[in-house]
Amino acid sequence: MKTSLILPILPLPFVFSSPAANHDARTNAKKYLIIDNDWGITDFTLTNLALLSKEYTLLGATSSTGITWALQSGLHALQSIQLLGGNPPLTSCVPVQKGADYPILNNPGLYTAYQSIFGIVPFAGAFRPQNDTAEALGLSDPTSGDPQRIAPAAFVNGQAPNPRDLAGTDAAYFMIQMVRKYPGQVTIYCAGPMTNIALAVRLDPLFARNTAGLVQMGGYIDTDLYTTVPGDILQADINIDLNFKFDPEAAKIALTADFPRIQLVGNGANGVFLSPADIADITARANNTFTRTLAVAYPLVLPLWDQTALVTLLYPDTIRNSTVFYVDVDVAFASPFYGQVKPYQELLKSTVQTLRNVTYVYAVDEQRVRNLVKDAVVAPPTRCQG
Ligand SMILES: *[C@@H]1O[C@H](CO)[C@@H](O)[C@H](O)[C@H]1NC(C)=O
Ligand SMILES: *[C@@H]1O[C@H](CO)[C@@H](O)[C@H](O)[C@H]1NC(C)=O
Ligand SMILES: *[C@@H]1O[C@H](CO)[C@@H](O)[C@H](O)[C@H]1NC(C)=O
Ligand SMILES: *[C@@H]1O[C@H](CO)[C@@H](O)[C@H](O)[C@H]1NC(C)=O
User: Fold this and answer.
1) pTM more than 0.90
2) Which residue has the least CA distance to atom 7 on ligand 2?
3) Over residues 329-346, mean pLDDT
Protein backbone atom coordinates (compact mmCIF):
# COMPACT_ATOMS: atom_id res chain seq x y z
CA MET A 1 0.00 0.00 0.00
CA LYS A 2 2.88 2.33 0.57
CA THR A 3 3.53 2.52 -3.15
CA SER A 4 -0.06 3.46 -4.03
CA LEU A 5 -0.21 6.70 -2.13
CA ILE A 6 -3.10 8.81 -3.31
CA LEU A 7 -1.04 11.77 -4.36
CA PRO A 8 1.02 12.32 -7.46
CA ILE A 9 4.70 12.37 -6.70
CA LEU A 10 6.22 15.77 -7.01
CA PRO A 11 9.93 15.70 -6.44
CA LEU A 12 9.94 19.25 -5.10
CA PRO A 13 13.16 20.69 -3.86
CA PHE A 14 13.11 20.84 -0.11
CA VAL A 15 13.13 24.35 1.24
CA PHE A 16 14.55 24.17 4.76
CA SER A 17 18.19 24.26 3.91
CA SER A 18 19.33 23.41 0.46
CA PRO A 19 23.08 24.02 0.14
CA ALA A 20 22.37 27.07 -2.04
CA ALA A 21 20.00 28.56 0.51
CA ASN A 22 22.71 28.43 3.18
CA HIS A 23 24.52 31.23 1.48
CA ASP A 24 21.75 33.64 0.69
CA ALA A 25 21.59 36.73 2.83
CA ARG A 26 18.41 35.95 4.73
CA THR A 27 19.44 32.51 5.88
CA ASN A 28 23.05 33.42 6.55
CA ALA A 29 22.17 33.66 10.22
CA LYS A 30 23.01 30.67 12.34
CA LYS A 31 20.58 27.77 12.42
CA TYR A 32 19.41 26.45 15.74
CA LEU A 33 17.56 23.31 16.68
CA ILE A 34 15.50 22.12 19.62
CA ILE A 35 14.57 18.43 19.83
CA ASP A 36 11.30 17.68 21.57
CA ASN A 37 10.75 13.97 22.10
CA ASP A 38 9.39 11.14 24.20
CA TRP A 39 12.94 9.98 24.81
CA GLY A 40 13.96 6.36 25.38
CA ILE A 41 17.15 4.53 26.21
CA THR A 42 18.57 4.51 22.65
CA ASP A 43 17.59 8.04 21.68
CA PHE A 44 21.15 9.22 22.23
CA THR A 45 21.22 8.53 18.50
CA LEU A 46 19.18 11.74 18.05
CA THR A 47 21.30 13.98 20.27
CA ASN A 48 24.48 12.52 18.76
CA LEU A 49 23.23 13.17 15.22
CA ALA A 50 22.23 16.73 16.09
CA LEU A 51 25.49 17.51 17.89
CA LEU A 52 27.49 16.24 14.92
CA SER A 53 25.70 18.61 12.56
CA LYS A 54 27.84 21.30 11.00
CA GLU A 55 24.79 23.28 10.01
CA TYR A 56 22.55 23.29 13.08
CA THR A 57 23.41 24.08 16.68
CA LEU A 58 21.41 22.11 19.23
CA LEU A 59 20.00 24.57 21.78
CA GLY A 60 18.39 22.01 24.04
CA ALA A 61 16.30 18.91 24.42
CA THR A 62 12.75 18.91 25.73
CA SER A 63 10.71 15.94 26.85
CA SER A 64 7.15 14.92 26.20
CA THR A 65 4.87 12.15 27.33
CA GLY A 66 4.40 9.51 24.64
CA ILE A 67 6.05 6.14 25.04
CA THR A 68 6.51 6.97 28.73
CA TRP A 69 5.80 9.93 31.00
CA ALA A 70 7.65 13.21 30.43
CA LEU A 71 9.82 12.90 33.56
CA GLN A 72 11.31 9.50 32.70
CA SER A 73 11.58 10.62 29.09
CA GLY A 74 13.44 13.80 30.09
CA LEU A 75 15.85 11.76 32.21
CA HIS A 76 16.64 9.60 29.18
CA ALA A 77 17.51 12.76 27.24
CA LEU A 78 19.64 13.99 30.14
CA GLN A 79 21.48 10.69 30.39
CA SER A 80 22.16 10.77 26.65
CA ILE A 81 23.96 14.11 27.04
CA GLN A 82 25.71 13.10 30.26
CA LEU A 83 27.14 9.97 28.61
CA LEU A 84 28.95 12.17 26.11
CA GLY A 85 31.11 13.71 28.83
CA GLY A 86 33.21 16.45 27.24
CA ASN A 87 35.24 19.31 28.58
CA PRO A 88 33.32 21.49 29.19
CA PRO A 89 30.64 18.83 29.63
CA LEU A 90 28.06 18.79 26.88
CA THR A 91 25.37 19.14 29.55
CA SER A 92 26.56 22.75 29.89
CA CYS A 93 25.52 23.58 26.32
CA VAL A 94 22.50 21.28 25.87
CA PRO A 95 20.01 21.79 28.72
CA VAL A 96 17.18 19.29 29.07
CA GLN A 97 13.75 20.63 29.98
CA LYS A 98 10.86 18.50 31.10
CA GLY A 99 7.57 18.92 29.28
CA ALA A 100 3.90 18.45 30.14
CA ASP A 101 2.91 15.27 31.95
CA TYR A 102 -0.44 14.91 30.21
CA PRO A 103 -1.65 15.48 26.68
CA ILE A 104 -4.04 18.40 26.09
CA LEU A 105 -7.11 16.25 26.81
CA ASN A 106 -6.17 12.59 26.65
CA ASN A 107 -5.46 10.36 29.64
CA PRO A 108 -5.29 6.61 30.35
CA GLY A 109 -8.96 6.41 31.35
CA LEU A 110 -10.21 8.11 28.20
CA TYR A 111 -7.92 5.97 26.08
CA THR A 112 -9.27 2.81 27.67
CA ALA A 113 -12.81 4.04 26.99
CA TYR A 114 -11.84 4.86 23.39
CA GLN A 115 -10.47 1.37 22.85
CA SER A 116 -13.60 -0.20 24.26
CA ILE A 117 -15.56 1.55 21.50
CA PHE A 118 -13.18 1.41 18.53
CA GLY A 119 -11.00 -1.59 19.26
CA ILE A 120 -7.54 -2.05 20.62
CA VAL A 121 -4.87 0.46 19.71
CA PRO A 122 -1.91 -1.88 19.13
CA PHE A 123 0.53 0.39 20.95
CA ALA A 124 -0.75 2.80 23.59
CA GLY A 125 2.56 4.22 24.85
CA ALA A 126 2.43 5.68 28.36
CA PHE A 127 -1.25 4.76 28.57
CA ARG A 128 -0.49 1.04 28.68
CA PRO A 129 -1.47 -0.40 32.07
CA GLN A 130 1.14 -0.04 34.81
CA ASN A 131 3.35 -3.15 35.05
CA ASP A 132 5.63 -3.03 38.09
CA THR A 133 7.38 -6.27 37.14
CA ALA A 134 8.37 -4.97 33.71
CA GLU A 135 9.49 -1.64 35.21
CA ALA A 136 11.62 -3.34 37.88
CA LEU A 137 13.29 -5.57 35.26
CA GLY A 138 14.11 -2.62 33.00
CA LEU A 139 11.80 -4.03 30.34
CA SER A 140 9.55 -0.99 30.37
CA ASP A 141 9.63 2.70 31.15
CA PRO A 142 6.77 3.82 33.43
CA THR A 143 3.28 3.52 31.97
CA SER A 144 0.01 4.76 33.52
CA GLY A 145 -0.14 5.31 37.29
CA ASP A 146 1.85 8.21 38.74
CA PRO A 147 3.59 10.28 36.01
CA GLN A 148 6.31 11.32 38.51
CA ARG A 149 7.51 7.74 38.91
CA ILE A 150 11.06 6.92 37.80
CA ALA A 151 12.07 3.39 36.75
CA PRO A 152 15.89 3.30 37.12
CA ALA A 153 16.26 -0.16 35.60
CA ALA A 154 15.31 1.22 32.19
CA PHE A 155 18.41 3.45 32.03
CA VAL A 156 21.92 2.70 30.82
CA ASN A 157 23.73 0.90 33.66
CA GLY A 158 20.41 0.74 35.56
CA GLN A 159 20.92 4.26 36.87
CA ALA A 160 18.61 7.21 36.38
CA PRO A 161 20.13 10.70 36.42
CA ASN A 162 19.11 13.00 39.26
CA PRO A 163 15.91 14.88 38.29
CA ARG A 164 17.48 18.00 39.83
CA ASP A 165 19.89 18.03 36.90
CA LEU A 166 17.05 18.78 34.53
CA ALA A 167 17.14 22.47 33.61
CA GLY A 168 14.80 24.71 35.51
CA THR A 169 11.97 25.66 33.19
CA ASP A 170 9.19 23.98 31.24
CA ALA A 171 9.64 22.62 27.75
CA ALA A 172 7.06 24.94 26.18
CA TYR A 173 8.47 28.04 27.85
CA PHE A 174 12.04 27.09 26.94
CA MET A 175 11.03 26.86 23.27
CA ILE A 176 9.34 30.26 23.52
CA GLN A 177 12.41 31.81 25.16
CA MET A 178 14.76 30.44 22.51
CA VAL A 179 12.54 31.58 19.63
CA ARG A 180 12.37 35.09 21.14
CA LYS A 181 16.14 35.09 21.47
CA TYR A 182 16.80 33.88 17.92
CA PRO A 183 13.74 34.88 15.86
CA GLY A 184 13.53 33.09 12.53
CA GLN A 185 16.47 30.83 13.35
CA VAL A 186 15.12 28.01 15.52
CA THR A 187 13.74 24.85 13.96
CA ILE A 188 11.65 22.66 16.23
CA TYR A 189 12.14 18.96 15.59
CA CYS A 190 9.44 16.93 17.30
CA ALA A 191 9.69 13.15 17.41
CA GLY A 192 6.91 12.59 19.95
CA PRO A 193 3.37 13.85 20.55
CA MET A 194 3.02 17.60 19.96
CA THR A 195 1.78 18.56 23.45
CA ASN A 196 4.64 20.95 24.27
CA ILE A 197 4.48 22.55 20.82
CA ALA A 198 0.74 23.15 21.18
CA LEU A 199 1.29 24.72 24.62
CA ALA A 200 3.99 27.02 23.22
CA VAL A 201 1.70 27.97 20.32
CA ARG A 202 -1.11 28.87 22.71
CA LEU A 203 1.11 30.70 25.22
CA ASP A 204 2.79 32.94 22.67
CA PRO A 205 0.88 34.00 19.55
CA LEU A 206 4.17 34.89 17.84
CA PHE A 207 5.90 31.61 18.65
CA ALA A 208 5.12 29.56 15.55
CA ARG A 209 5.68 32.31 12.99
CA ASN A 210 9.00 33.30 14.58
CA THR A 211 10.48 29.81 14.38
CA ALA A 212 12.28 28.63 11.27
CA GLY A 213 9.78 25.78 11.04
CA LEU A 214 8.54 22.54 12.49
CA VAL A 215 9.66 19.06 11.47
CA GLN A 216 7.43 16.36 12.86
CA MET A 217 7.83 12.60 12.85
CA GLY A 218 4.54 10.87 12.03
CA GLY A 219 1.31 11.57 10.19
CA TYR A 220 0.87 8.33 8.29
CA ILE A 221 -1.42 8.30 5.33
CA ASP A 222 -3.24 5.25 3.97
CA THR A 223 -1.85 2.70 6.39
CA ASP A 224 -5.21 1.27 7.44
CA LEU A 225 -4.60 -1.94 5.57
CA TYR A 226 -1.58 -2.46 7.81
CA THR A 227 -3.21 -1.50 11.09
CA THR A 228 -6.48 -3.33 10.82
CA VAL A 229 -6.54 -6.03 8.22
CA PRO A 230 -3.70 -8.54 7.77
CA GLY A 231 -3.65 -9.97 11.26
CA ASP A 232 -0.07 -8.89 11.81
CA ILE A 233 0.11 -7.15 15.17
CA LEU A 234 3.67 -5.95 14.63
CA GLN A 235 2.67 -4.20 11.40
CA ALA A 236 -0.34 -2.73 13.19
CA ASP A 237 1.92 -1.51 15.98
CA ILE A 238 4.43 0.01 13.56
CA ASN A 239 1.70 1.88 11.72
CA ILE A 240 -0.22 3.20 14.69
CA ASP A 241 1.16 6.76 14.55
CA LEU A 242 1.40 7.15 18.32
CA ASN A 243 2.67 10.74 18.08
CA PHE A 244 -0.66 11.80 16.62
CA LYS A 245 -3.03 9.30 18.21
CA PHE A 246 -1.73 10.00 21.74
CA ASP A 247 -2.51 13.72 21.64
CA PRO A 248 -4.76 14.51 18.67
CA GLU A 249 -5.72 17.97 19.95
CA ALA A 250 -2.07 18.99 20.25
CA ALA A 251 -1.40 17.72 16.72
CA LYS A 252 -4.22 19.85 15.38
CA ILE A 253 -3.10 22.97 17.27
CA ALA A 254 0.51 22.53 16.13
CA LEU A 255 -0.19 21.71 12.50
CA THR A 256 -2.64 24.58 12.03
CA ALA A 257 -0.30 27.13 13.65
CA ASP A 258 1.51 29.61 11.42
CA PHE A 259 4.92 27.95 11.28
CA PRO A 260 6.74 29.27 8.21
CA ARG A 261 7.28 25.66 7.16
CA ILE A 262 6.07 22.30 8.34
CA GLN A 263 7.61 19.02 7.28
CA LEU A 264 5.93 15.74 8.16
CA VAL A 265 8.00 12.59 7.95
CA GLY A 266 5.40 9.87 8.17
CA ASN A 267 5.34 6.91 5.83
CA GLY A 268 8.87 7.79 4.74
CA ALA A 269 10.25 7.00 8.20
CA ASN A 270 8.50 3.68 8.42
CA GLY A 271 10.68 1.51 6.24
CA VAL A 272 14.16 2.18 7.59
CA PHE A 273 15.54 -0.55 9.83
CA LEU A 274 18.86 -1.53 11.35
CA SER A 275 19.80 -5.14 10.64
CA PRO A 276 21.84 -7.60 12.72
CA ALA A 277 24.65 -6.91 10.23
CA ASP A 278 24.48 -3.20 11.07
CA ILE A 279 24.78 -4.02 14.77
CA ALA A 280 27.73 -6.30 14.07
CA ASP A 281 29.27 -3.49 12.05
CA ILE A 282 29.02 -0.86 14.80
CA THR A 283 30.25 -3.18 17.54
CA ALA A 284 33.22 -4.16 15.36
CA ARG A 285 34.05 -0.52 14.70
CA ALA A 286 33.76 0.72 18.30
CA ASN A 287 33.13 -0.51 21.81
CA ASN A 288 31.59 2.42 23.66
CA THR A 289 28.47 2.94 25.78
CA PHE A 290 26.49 3.94 22.72
CA THR A 291 27.40 0.97 20.53
CA ARG A 292 26.95 -1.46 23.42
CA THR A 293 23.58 -0.01 24.43
CA LEU A 294 22.29 0.14 20.86
CA ALA A 295 23.33 -3.48 20.39
CA VAL A 296 21.38 -4.75 23.40
CA ALA A 297 18.50 -2.28 23.64
CA TYR A 298 17.47 -1.36 20.09
CA PRO A 299 14.52 -3.48 18.92
CA LEU A 300 15.51 -4.38 15.37
CA VAL A 301 11.89 -5.09 14.41
CA LEU A 302 11.07 -1.39 14.77
CA PRO A 303 11.98 1.28 12.21
CA LEU A 304 14.44 4.10 12.85
CA TRP A 305 11.48 6.46 12.91
CA ASP A 306 12.84 9.41 14.85
CA GLN A 307 16.35 9.13 13.46
CA THR A 308 15.07 9.09 9.87
CA ALA A 309 12.93 12.17 10.38
CA LEU A 310 15.83 14.03 12.02
CA VAL A 311 18.20 13.06 9.21
CA THR A 312 15.79 14.55 6.64
CA LEU A 313 16.15 17.86 8.48
CA LEU A 314 19.91 17.75 9.02
CA TYR A 315 20.70 16.31 5.56
CA PRO A 316 17.83 17.33 3.21
CA ASP A 317 19.51 15.61 0.28
CA THR A 318 18.47 12.29 1.87
CA ILE A 319 14.87 13.03 0.86
CA ARG A 320 13.97 10.93 -2.17
CA ASN A 321 10.32 11.78 -2.51
CA SER A 322 8.22 14.51 -1.03
CA THR A 323 5.09 16.39 -1.95
CA VAL A 324 3.09 19.31 -0.57
CA PHE A 325 -0.52 19.30 0.59
CA TYR A 326 -2.74 20.78 3.28
CA VAL A 327 -3.43 18.81 6.44
CA ASP A 328 -6.05 18.65 9.10
CA VAL A 329 -6.15 16.28 12.07
CA ASP A 330 -9.29 14.41 13.13
CA VAL A 331 -10.10 15.54 16.68
CA ALA A 332 -13.51 13.89 16.96
CA PHE A 333 -13.24 11.56 19.95
CA ALA A 334 -16.18 9.56 18.63
CA SER A 335 -14.25 8.66 15.48
CA PRO A 336 -12.13 5.62 14.70
CA PHE A 337 -9.83 8.09 12.91
CA TYR A 338 -9.33 10.25 16.04
CA GLY A 339 -5.79 11.57 15.78
CA GLN A 340 -5.28 10.74 12.12
CA VAL A 341 -4.06 13.13 9.47
CA LYS A 342 -6.47 14.21 6.75
CA PRO A 343 -4.76 15.55 3.60
CA TYR A 344 -6.37 18.08 1.28
CA GLN A 345 -5.55 19.71 -2.00
CA GLU A 346 -5.80 23.49 -2.28
CA LEU A 347 -9.13 23.52 -4.11
CA LEU A 348 -10.93 21.22 -1.70
CA LYS A 349 -9.62 22.30 1.68
CA SER A 350 -11.77 23.85 4.38
CA THR A 351 -12.63 27.50 3.91
CA VAL A 352 -13.39 28.23 7.57
CA GLN A 353 -10.23 26.76 9.07
CA THR A 354 -6.74 27.98 8.30
CA LEU A 355 -5.10 24.76 7.29
CA ARG A 356 -1.38 24.81 6.53
CA ASN A 357 0.40 23.08 3.73
CA VAL A 358 3.11 20.65 4.74
CA THR A 359 6.00 19.06 2.95
CA TYR A 360 5.30 15.38 3.28
CA VAL A 361 8.29 13.06 3.06
CA TYR A 362 7.61 9.50 2.11
CA ALA A 363 10.82 8.17 0.67
CA VAL A 364 14.37 8.63 1.91
CA ASP A 365 17.84 7.37 1.10
CA GLU A 366 17.62 4.50 3.57
CA GLN A 367 21.24 3.40 3.35
CA ARG A 368 22.46 6.91 4.02
CA VAL A 369 20.17 7.22 7.07
CA ARG A 370 21.52 3.95 8.44
CA ASN A 371 25.10 5.03 7.84
CA LEU A 372 24.60 8.39 9.54
CA VAL A 373 23.01 6.73 12.57
CA LYS A 374 25.83 4.18 12.78
CA ASP A 375 28.54 6.85 12.46
CA ALA A 376 26.85 8.87 15.22
CA VAL A 377 27.33 6.04 17.73
CA VAL A 378 30.71 4.81 16.48
CA ALA A 379 32.23 8.31 16.65
CA PRO A 380 29.99 10.30 19.01
CA PRO A 381 30.29 14.08 19.38
CA THR A 382 32.87 15.22 21.92
CA ARG A 383 32.36 18.95 22.23
CA CYS A 384 29.80 21.70 22.31
CA GLN A 385 28.86 23.26 18.98
CA GLY A 386 30.09 26.76 18.13
C1 LIG B 1 9.16 8.71 -6.05
O2 LIG B 1 8.55 7.47 -5.79
C3 LIG B 1 7.94 6.91 -6.91
C4 LIG B 1 7.17 5.67 -6.47
O5 LIG B 1 7.96 4.87 -5.65
C6 LIG B 1 8.98 6.61 -7.98
O7 LIG B 1 8.38 6.08 -9.13
C8 LIG B 1 9.67 7.91 -8.34
O9 LIG B 1 10.73 7.66 -9.23
C10 LIG B 1 10.21 8.60 -7.11
N11 LIG B 1 10.69 9.91 -7.47
C12 LIG B 1 11.94 10.28 -7.16
C13 LIG B 1 12.29 11.70 -7.55
O14 LIG B 1 12.75 9.59 -6.61
C1 LIG C 1 4.22 -7.49 32.97
O2 LIG C 1 5.53 -7.60 32.49
C3 LIG C 1 6.06 -8.91 32.61
C4 LIG C 1 7.53 -8.83 32.23
O5 LIG C 1 7.68 -8.28 30.92
C6 LIG C 1 5.26 -9.84 31.71
O7 LIG C 1 5.77 -11.15 31.81
C8 LIG C 1 3.80 -9.80 32.14
O9 LIG C 1 3.03 -10.56 31.24
C10 LIG C 1 3.29 -8.39 32.18
N11 LIG C 1 1.97 -8.36 32.77
C12 LIG C 1 0.92 -7.93 32.12
C13 LIG C 1 -0.38 -7.96 32.87
O14 LIG C 1 0.97 -7.53 30.98
C1 LIG D 1 33.71 -3.73 25.43
O2 LIG D 1 33.90 -2.95 26.59
C3 LIG D 1 33.32 -3.52 27.75
C4 LIG D 1 33.41 -2.50 28.88
O5 LIG D 1 34.65 -1.87 28.91
C6 LIG D 1 34.04 -4.82 28.06
O7 LIG D 1 33.46 -5.42 29.21
C8 LIG D 1 33.89 -5.75 26.87
O9 LIG D 1 34.63 -6.94 27.08
C10 LIG D 1 34.36 -5.08 25.60
N11 LIG D 1 34.02 -5.92 24.46
C12 LIG D 1 34.89 -6.19 23.49
C13 LIG D 1 34.39 -7.08 22.39
O14 LIG D 1 36.03 -5.77 23.50
C1 LIG E 1 2.63 26.46 0.98
O2 LIG E 1 2.30 27.56 1.80
C3 LIG E 1 3.22 28.63 1.75
C4 LIG E 1 2.80 29.64 2.78
O5 LIG E 1 1.43 29.93 2.70
C6 LIG E 1 3.27 29.19 0.34
O7 LIG E 1 4.23 30.19 0.26
C8 LIG E 1 3.65 28.08 -0.61
O9 LIG E 1 3.60 28.54 -1.93
C10 LIG E 1 2.73 26.90 -0.46
N11 LIG E 1 3.24 25.83 -1.29
C12 LIG E 1 2.44 25.07 -2.02
C13 LIG E 1 3.13 24.05 -2.86
O14 LIG E 1 1.25 25.18 -2.02
Assistant:
1) yes
2) 134
3) 96
